[in-house]
Design a protein that fits this description.
Helices cover about 35% and strands about 20% of the residues. The chain is α/β, with parallel strands linked by helices and about 260 residues long. Helix 1 crosses helix 2 (about 45-60) and helix 2 (about 45-60) packs parallel to helix 3. The relative contact order is 0.19. 2-amino-2-deoxy-6-O-phosphono-alpha-D-glucopyranose binds next to helix 5.
Length: about 260
């Protein structure tokens, strides 16, 4: 676990501000060269995105060489469905970046196509597109309560690439809040980057926030990598930063006396 650099923030606000600063700094280290940022969706990411947009709008770097790759998308789902990750990312991230008029290109924003009739081809093609830009420099992740990353559910192995997956009942239950017609409207499948795809990113930033994530944080810290907890495969990566808050971390760190930073 030496590869995990864990920082525990007081609360979600602080975690969101610091994650935006962290991502901005890693990008500036490569600037003005191409920077490929892997993005996640979900509630945890909202604060990071707002703070990141604020930072960009204040500092005004050129966005010409910024590439964005979303982790996953429901399948099937229309792009203009308000619960698609396409719609959500376009509204809350890509359009605000375009509006800054700092050179961001819409064709540098990638997400698996939830409208495709051939999801297997789409998945293979997505994997190729990531390779064609030189791979992901920094991948941001959230985690599901049962330990999924992207939509790599329990049972996903370490050698998986971008593919079509079935969503678990608990994931559909957790995500139903976004769908006005409830769980039955949540698609049963998704296209997601695989574990291998994620592990190929040069750096990883994992955000874990809130009381609901306390158990998964504890399991991540305490268990060896295994298929029942896909997030545990991050232990195979050399450069993982974990930003968490007091609600999610609970007493886990004190219990095992792990070296970590408290802020
Ligand atoms: C979702 C997404 C993941 C996300 C995770 C946690 O199902 N597919 O990419 O990181 O579950 O979401 P949240 O931050 O809303 O808890």
């Amino acid at each position: 676990m030496k590869n995990f650099k864990i920082t525990i923030f007081n609360d979600y606000n602080q975690l969101s501000q610091e994650s935006a600063k962290y991502v901005f700094s890693r990008w500036q280290e490569k600037y003005p060269k191409k920077f490929v940022l892997g993005l996640a969706t979900g509630k945890t990411q909202v604060g990071f995105r707002k703070n990141f947009l604020k930072l960009v709008s204040n500092r005004k770097p050129s966005l010409k060489n910024l590439y964005l790759f979303n982790l996953d998308e429901y399948w099937p789902i229309e792009k203009n469905h308000p619960c698609s990750y396409f719609w959500e990312s376009n509204r809350n991230f890509w359009q605000p970046l375009l509006k800054l008029r700092l050179g961001f290109k819409q064709n540098h924003a990638f997400i698996p196509n939830g409208e495709t009739e051939n999801p297997r081809f789409e998945a293979a093609n997505y994997e190729k597109t990531i390779k064609s830009v030189g791979g992901v420099d920094l991948q941001i992740l959230g985690v599901g309560v049962e330990g999924h990353i992207g939509f790599n559910e329990k049972g996903s192995s370490a050698d998986t690439t971008t593919r079509l997956v079935n969503l678990s009942d608990s994931t559909r239950e957790a995500n139903k809040a976004f769908f006005s017609q409830g769980k039955r409207a949540v698609p049963k499948q998704a296209i997601t980057m695989g574990i291998t795809t994620i592990l190929k990113a040069r750096k990883i930033l994992l955000l874990i926030s809130g009381r609901k994530k306390r158990m998964v944080f504890k399991r991540l810290i305490k268990s060896k990598q295994n298929k029942n907890l896909p997030v545990s495969f991050l232990k195979l990566h050399q450069d993982v930063t974990i930003f968490t808050d007091r609600e999610a971390s609970g007493k886990t760190i004190e219990e095992i006396n792990l070296q970590s930073k408290f802020k």
